[in-house]
Amino acid sequence: MENNRKHKAGFVNIVGNPNVGKSTLMNQLVGERISIATFKAQTTRHRIMGIVNTPDMQIVFSDTPGVLKPNYKLQESMLAFSESALTDADVLLYVTDVVETPEKNMDFLEKVQKMTIPVLLLINKIDESDQQTLGNIVEKWHALLPNAEILPISAKNKFGTDMLLRRIEELLPESPAFFDKDQLTDKPARFFVSEIIREKILLYYDKEIPYSVEVVVERFKEDERKIHINAVIYVERDSQKGIIIGHQGVALKKVSTEARKALEKFFDKHIYLEVFVKVDKDWRSSQRELDNFGYNPD
């Protein structure tokens, strides 16, 4: 095939502070609901691969945790994922929005300034701004990252995302595909089960509860028509276990039902979901537990 000679492939990594719309953007670019997108910060704890394939191109996207100053072990691990994204990309997408101040995380920006790969700075949520404000934001970013190309977008409204894909395609190196062409992500099915359950916890419980929670899928048994799933929600304290379960189990039942509906949509099969709650004291501060839960950037 003559086309092979010109096949392009590369790694495009998405970084930025929490809540600027990275996961929403990734979902638009990949066209599948790969990353969980919710309104609370810190929902993306792992780097997630989403893969876009065309006959002569493969883009491998990584969605990273929001960049934040670590104040406990889990956040150190999350920051390590974000920083590792700077070292292995062919193109970097730095996502900001019209609300946050450009100087918010200068340590990370200084690392981006030194990069030699193409950096596309995406100013998201432009539907929430006006022309003059946007102009000022563009000027500020241009001063901070003079080598970056600046593209205003609205991921939620799909504005500018097609243009962004075309620009990424132009910047990708010529290369054979890294993954099978029918593969959408490098994550196993169990990963999406735990992410979807965690998303429902984020939406349903207040304050610190979601950030003290980890979800582990202990059983994933699939046949032609249905999938049996047993999942454990780990919390750090007995009081949190009580909150997760709720009065007469109402809260846990609600989360399980919402998660089951989302899982049926995701896998397009009947789901039998059993969810248990267990206490694992201080898992966020234990390196051994974090390793067990997969928070290891290597």
Overall description:
- The protein is of the alpha/beta class.
- 34% of the residues lie in helices and 23% in strands.
- It has 9 helices and 9 strands.
- A 6-stranded mixed beta sheet has the order 2-3-1-4-5-6, with helices on both faces.
- Helix 3 links the parallel strand 4 (91-97) and strand 5 (119-124).
- The chain is globular, with a radius of gyration of 20 Å.
- The chain starts with 7 loop residues before the first strand and ends in a 6-residue tail after the last helix.
- The relative contact order is 0.14.
Instruction: Indicate the mean pLDDT.
Output: 79
Rg calculated over all Cα atoms: 20 Å
**Poorly predicted segments:** 35-46, 66-72
The assembly state of the depicted protein chains is single chain
Provide a short characterization of the protein structure:
The protein is α/β, with parallel strands linked by helices and 298 residues long.
What are the salient characteristics of this protein?
298 residues, three-stranded mixed β-sheet, alpha/beta, 9 helices, 34% helix, single chain
Task: Write the SSE topology.
Layout lengths: L7 E8 L6 H9 L17 E7 L2 E7 L9 H12 L6 E7 L8 H8 L5 E6 L6 H14 L4 E4 L8 H11 L17 H16 L9 E9 L3 E10 L2 H8 L4 H18 L2 E10 L7 H6 L6
Parallel strand pairs: 1-3, 1-4, 4-5, 5-6, 8-9
Antiparallel strand pairs: 2-3, 7-8
